[in-house]
Amino acid sequence: MKRRRFKKRIKVENADSTDQLEVADAEDAMDDDGLDELDQDQELEDQDEEMFADVVDSEGESDFSNEQQSAALDKLAAELEVIREEAKRYQDEARENYDKFLRAVAEMENVKKRSKKERSDLLRYAGEGMARELLEVLDSLELALKQRVTEGEPNDFSRGIEMIRDQFVSTFERFGIKGESAVGKQFDPELHEAMVSVPTGEHPAGSVIEEYKKLFRFRDKLLRPAQVVVASAPEGAQAASPTEAESSSEESGESGEAEVG
Q: Residue 46 pLDDT more than 80?
C-alpha cells in the first residue's frame, strides 16, 4: 500500500525562531493526521477490491463446481449401473449354486437311504447264497422220495431220507425260507419258469400241472422261481367264446365252493 504525503508550506514572515518551531510542529501534526486518513481510505479501497475479487472468484468456482458435480453424478450413475449388473450376476450365480447345493444334499440323503437299505438288506438276507445252494440238496431229497413212490412200499432207507427232508424244511422255515407249490395255479412268468408245455383238455390252458422244482422265498424276497409244466389247449380245439368261458368260470367257482363246504 502506497503512502502519499502532502506537505503544506506556510510562510511566516517576521516571526522569530520560536514561532517558526511551533509552526513546524503544527505542520508535522497536520501531515501525520492527513496521512492517517489517507491510509484508512486506502485500506478501505483495498478491502473493497479484495471483496470484489472474492465474489468474482466464488462465482467462477461455483460455476465450475456445478459442471464437476454434473460430470461426477453421471460417472456415479454409470458406476452404479455396473454395480447393479454385477450384483444381479452374483445373485444369479448364488441362486444357481444354492440349487446345486440343494440337489447335492438331496442326492446325499438318497445315497444315505440307499446305503442304509443295502446294509439292512445285507443283514436281512445274509446267507441267501448258501440257502440257494442248500436248495439243491433239498431237491435231491425230494427226487429220491419221488423215486421211492414209483418203486413200491417205503423202507427204512426211504423213511430216513424223508426225515432228513423234513429237517431241511423245518430249518429253512426257522430262517425265513419257505416253499410254495405252483401246481394248479395260473402260470406267472414272474414266479414260474416254464420247462414244458403239454397240450391237454383236462386242465385249463396256462395252468401249472406239474413242477420239477418248487418255488422258494427268503422272507419277502423270491429266492428261486418254480420250474413247472404248463398246460396248453389241445391241437384243433377252438377257443371258447366269452360266454362259454364265463359260464365255465362260474361253474368252476361253484364247484370250488362246494368242495370247501
A: no
Full-prediction pTM beyond 0.85? Answer: no
**47 located within any domain:** no
pLDDT tens for each residue of 57-92: 554 444 557 888 888 888 888 999 999 999 999 999
The reply to whether 209 falls in a domain is: yes
Identify the domain containing residue 207 by its residue range.
Answer: 125-236
How many domains, the chain? 1
Distance from C-alpha of 258 to C-alpha of 261, rounded to nearest angstrom: 5
Burial of 6 (0-12, 13-18, 19+ CB in 10 A): exposed
Q: Cα 187 from chain centroid?
A: 45
Is the torsion defined by CA of 155, 160, 161, 163 positive or negative?
Answer: positive
Give the domain CATH number at 150. Answer: 2.30.22.10
